[in-house]
Design brief:
Layout: H1 3-10, H2 14-21, H3 29-39, E1 67-71, E2 76-80, E3 89-96, E4 111-119, E5 121-126, E6 129-134, E7 138-142, E8 147-151, E9 157-165
Antiparallel strand pairs: 1-2, 2-3, 3-9, 4-7, 4-9, 5-6, 5-8
């Protein structure tokens, strides 16, 4: 696929795609999502490091082998908990620094999302509602609704985040 074709499918400019390809800039969460949808690949394809090449890597992800995707400007790191190659269900660990968040614009994605706050206090906005979620609390919602999140703690927050994509057909 050419950069021009990917640009049309993803609504990301050719210039931005070229900068990303050459390592001159890091894509935003929104840009990654647009590219993921345009390329029809799981989010796991964008995580750094290599997936284990043995049979265990198809089922198990060891804690010391998690692939990570840092978004330093947002104070957010996503750790991939799902084995590579799985598409319908993605499990992530969101690690949010104090004030860390999902970015300036709300998200929308076809499917469902849910999670469990493991540490810290987490604010989740879904549609016009805001929820303050404490460690031990869980949540689930239709991810076609605009949603955003941020860490309300003065310490790192850790959230188990689960994404179920809608079936394409």
């Amino acid at each position: 696929m050419t950069l021009a074709e990917l640009s049309l499918k993803s609504a990301v400019s050719v210039g931005m795609l070229s900068h990303i390809e050459r390592g001159q800039t890091s894509p935003s969460l929104k840009t990654l999502e647009r590219l993921r949808v345009a390329l029809d690949v799981p989010l796991a394809r964008f995580f750094g490091g290599e997936a284990p090449k043995d049979d265990e890597g198809e089922v198990v992800v060891r804690s010391d082998a998690r692939r990570q995707l840092p978004f330093d400007a947002l104070g957010l790191t996503k750790q991939l908990l799902s084995p590579a190659g799985h598409r319908g269900l993605e499990m992530l660990m969101l690690v949010l620094e104090p004030g860390g968040n999902s970015g300036p614009e709300p998200w929308k994605r076809s499917g469902e999302k849910g999670g469990l706050v493991l540490e810290g206090r987490f604010e989740l906005s879904v549609g016009s509602r805001r929820y303050v979620i404490e460690a031990g609390d869980s949540f689930q919602f239709d991810s076609r609704q605009p949603h955003a999140f941020r860490n309300l703690s003065r310490r790192q927050a850790r959230v188990l985040w689960i994404i179920k994509a809608d079936d394409p057909g």
